[in-house]
Structure formats: C-alpha cells, structure tokens
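Example 129.
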Amino acid sequence: MAPVTVAVFYNVLDALIFKSFLESYSVTCFLADDTFLSIHPMASQAIGGVKLNVHPDDFEKASALFQSFKEGKNEELLAEIPHCPECSSDSVLPLPPEPGIYYNEFRCFDCDHEWNDRNLHDLNPGHIE
Ligand SMILES: [Zn+2]
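Predicted structure in complex with zinc ion:
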C-alpha cells in the first residue's frame, strides 16, 4: 500500500518536530523531500514543502494528532497523571524527568508513595537504571 501524506511543512525543522511527536505515540512515519530542502530551503514553495507520510492504516490517528499538535494540546495528551496505587489519591506529582530515564516517575502527596510506570513501556532489555 502506498504511504499517505498527513501534513506538509515549509521547513525541515518543523517537520522533524512533528515526526518526533508522532513517534512518541508509536506512529511510524517518514519525511519526503527533507534532504533536498535541507540543502535548498528556498525551493520549498517550488516542490511543495516537506511531506510527512504514514501507512494508510495510521492516517486517521496521525491526522487527529496533527490537529492537536497544531492547537498546542500536546501536553494535555501526553501528561495523563495516574492515581496513587497505594491510597488511590489523585494528588499525584509527576517527578521531573532525568536524562536516560524513559519512563515516568510519580509521588503521592497524601502518602508519599513513589512509583514509576516503567512496566507500561516496552523498554530496551539492556536498559540499566
Ligand atoms: Zn498515596
């Protein structure tokens, strides 16, 4: 099946930012004409910009994510804060991310319990804390 274009960008950096955003939602995608336009940025209008393409099965999900990306709702979508597994409180603080740590850590304000969601992520088996 031929890939479909979800979004067109006039500069390569914007396209790369959205590509990373989509990949954070496990949508496989690739850019077209990005190499040419990184060398000849002034040709963007002439060749119709950088195209971000996905598999046709992912088109709806990617289009919805593009809408929320344009409207700046990405943080809300990304930051789903769970309830405390010990006391079910919803007063939960996401701890600041550390370099090299690819899961989220939380602390409960009510019982001080700390936990992480690393078992929710498909981590590299070689990952060492
Ligand atoms: Zn708690």
